[in-house]
Amino acid sequence: MTTSTKIVALLICLHLLLLLHAAAAASTKSRKPCKQLTFYFHDILYNGKNKNNYTAAIIGAPAWGNHTTLADYNHFGNMVAFDDPITLDNNLHSTPVGRAQGLYLYDGKNVFNAWLSFSFAINSTNPNLKGSLNFAGNDPMLNKTRDISVIGGTGDFAMARGIATMSTDAMEGDVYFRLCVQINLYECW
Predict the structure, then answer these.
(1) What are phi and psi for residue 99, nearest 5 degrees?
(2) Where is the signal peptide (predicted)?
(3) What's the Rg (C-alpha) of the chain?
(4) Quick one: 81 exposed, middle or buried, by C-beta within 10 A (0-12, 13-18, 19+)?
C-alpha cells in the first residue's frame, strides 16, 4: 500500500469516527418540547343509577361480569367507552375545553392495568387550542405517574408527536376518576 493510499484510508477512518461521535452526542442530547399542555379529564362510569351524568359505559365484560359493575380480579376483561369532559383545572364543573373520547381495556389479569386508545377533541375559545390529539398506550394505574404516546393530531396539533404523562388526580370508587394529563410535544408543525 502506498503512502498516499494509507493517508486517504486514515482520513476516511478519522471522518467516520467523527461522524459516529457526532451521532452519539446528538442521541444523548435532551430535546426540549415544542409545546407543553396540561389538561384534566373527568370519567364518570355508568353504574345503573347515574343515567343523567355518566360519561363512560362498560361495553364489554367477561362471562362472569355485567355492564353496570366492573368485574372482580382487577376488572380484567372489561372494556369501557368514554366521552369525558376536558378542563384546564381539576374542577369537574369548570367550562370544558373539549372532550376525551375513546376506550380503555382492563388487560391485566394479575395486575391493575389498562390499555388506552383515545383522542382529545379540543374546541376551546383559545385560538391556539383547536383540533385533536391522539393517544395510545399502556396504563399501569397503580403507578403514581405513567407515560403514554401522543401519536398524532389535527388542527393546531397536526401530526404532533410526544409523550403524555398521566397521574390520577382523584378517584371515588369505581364510578369516578380524574386524570391530570401533562403533554410534552416534541414534533410540532
Answers:
(1) -130, 140
(2) 1-25
(3) 23
(4) middle
CB atoms within 10 A of CB 140: 11
Q: Are strands 35-44 and 98-106 parallel, antiparallel or unpaired?
A: unpaired
C-alpha cell of residue 180: 391530570
Q: Minimal CA–CA distance to 115: which of 143, 141, 134? A: 141
Class of residue 149 by CB neighbours under 10 A (exposed 0-12, middle 13-18, buried 19+): middle
For the segment 33-58, what is each residue's pLDDT rounded down to a tens digit? 999 999 999 999 999 999 999 999 99
pTM of the model: 0.81
- 89: cell is 383545572
To the nearest 10°, the Cα dihedral for 144, 41, 31, 132? 150
Q: How far apart are CA 120 and CA 157, in angstroms?
A: 11
The single-letter code of the amino acid at 154 is T
Model pLDDT for residues 155-184, shown as the tens digit of each residue: 999 999 999 999 999 999 999 999 999 999
Q: Give the helix ranges, DSSP H, for the chain.
A: 3-28
